[in-house]
Write a structure and sequence with these properties.
By secondary structure, the protein is of the alpha/beta class. The chain has two domains: 1-116 and 288-297, Isopropylmalate Dehydrogenase (3-Layer(aba) Sandwich), CATH 3.40.718.10; 119-285, Isopropylmalate Dehydrogenase, CATH 3.40.718.10. It contains twelve helices and ten strands. It has helices at 8-21, 33-42, 66-71, 77-86, 99-109, 146-164, 185-195, 223-244, 253-265, 267-275, 302-317, 320-329; strands at 27-31, 51-55, 92-95, 120-126, 132-136, 170-174, 201-206, 218-220, 284-287, 292-295. The strands form two sheets. Strands 3-10-9-4-5-8-6-7 form an eight-stranded mixed sheet, sandwiched between helices. A hairpin with a 5-residue loop joins strand 4 (120-126) and strand 5. The model has no long low-confidence stretch (mean pLDDT 88). Keywords: Acyltransferase, Cytoplasm, Lipid biosynthesis, Lipid metabolism, Phospholipid biosynthesis, Phospholipid metabolism, Transferase.
Length: 332
């Protein structure tokens, strides 16, 4: 409850929105109840039969180091939420808190899938044609081995099959060019290894300017590259959408007229840009764990946090961890 820039002020209205859409949900909330009560009252959620509140005043700060966060995690809202998932009291965890702490605690408390060396932050990237592309890793692993990149391809392939309903997903490696000789020695080596995989539909390299072009179904990269690419995409989309939005109290008639004409001329493209609005695709799952753990963007608003909740629900209903484990076992 306490994660993200605004904590309960974002999460509680998101929960109200989620319950309106899906009455079968039950929420276990972990955080400072004194801060939450006024908001629970505002959204008529206090004493709600679908909500159980577990009070704790211990919080992992957003800006402390990973090692310090782990040491200070006892009785924190984040750790208690993950422990509830570990113990089977909850089927999934959604948090907007410290990313490093969430990943570290999740890997510490929740068993990984068999033979998975490192889980990867995975999300669905919206394409301009209304479809989606799976992308991983988005920040869980700054440095990875050749073998781990191949594991990401295997997990991404199975994730796309379940979440996107694809039979033989196209897989690409993110690189600075599509030519065979482009990129680091590691990327070139993994490229050759994936080309020899008969069980994967590997189609080669993809460049970052094609992330939303739907030229592939799964994009593989290390966490450092993926995080930079995703944030650049999100920032560009938000800035362009902001250019089209009408500013209130704009007294400049010429500027208002110009903005209106731009909307008319580029309306079709504006609608497409709204589809790739990062708020509508908030949430990255820590793929490779035996339970569902979803990281929401720390700056998410209530609508975006509700999308992260929906993202977790889709994976729980699709039994993603079990289906990935079954798919991986068939490769052995």
């Amino acid at each position: 409850m306490m994660g993200g820039d605004l904590g309960p002020r974002v999460i509680i209205p998101a929960i109200a929105q989620a319950l309106q859409k899906n009455s079968n949900l039950t929420f276990l909330l972990f955080g400072n109840q004194h801060q939450a009560i006024p908001l629970l009252q505002k959204y008529t959620l206090q004493n709600h039969p679908k909500i159980q509140f577990h009070h704790t005043e211990q919080v992992i700060d957003a800006d402390i180091s990973f090692s310090k966060a782990i040491r200070q995690s006892k009785n924190s809202s984040m750790r208690l939420a993950l422990e509830a998932v570990k113990e089977g009291k909850a089927q999934g965890c959604v948090s907007g808190g410290n990313t490093g702490a969430l990943m570290g605690l999740a890997k510490l408390l929740i068993a990984p899938l068999p033979n998975i060396e490192r889980p990867a932050l995975t999300s669905l990237i919206p394409a301009m044609n209304g479809k989606s592309t799976v992308m991983l890793d988005l920040g869980a692993n700054i440095e990875v081995s050749d073998y781990q990149l191949q594991q990401f391809a295997e997990m991404g392939n199975l994730f796309a099959q379940v979440m996107l309903g694809l039979v033989y997903p196209r897989i690409s490696l993110l690189n600075i060019g599509t030519e065979e000789n482009k990129g680091t020695a590691q990327l070139q080596a993994v490229h050759q290894q994936l080309k020899n995989r008969q069980d994967l539909n590997y189609i080669g390299f993809i460049e970052s300017d094609k992330l939303t072009s739907y030229l592939t179904d799964v994009i593989i990269c290390d966490g450092y590259t993926g995080n930079i690419a995703l944030k650049a995409l999100e920032g560009a989309a938000k800035n362009i959408i902001a250019l089209f939005k009408k500013e209130k109290a704009d007294s400049n008639i010429c500027r208002s007229t110009k903005r209106y004409l731009l909307k008319l001329i580029f309306y079709r493209y504006y609608r497409k840009l709204q589809e790739i609005n990062p708020d509508r695709h908030n949430g990255a799952t820590l793929l490779g764990l035996s339970k569902v753990v979803v990281k929401s963007h720390g700056g998410a608003n209530s609508n975006a946090f509700c999308y992260a909740i929906d993202y977790a629900i889709q994976q729980i209903e699709g039994d993603i961890p079990s289906r990935i484990m079954q798919g991986l076992s068939q490769l052995e």
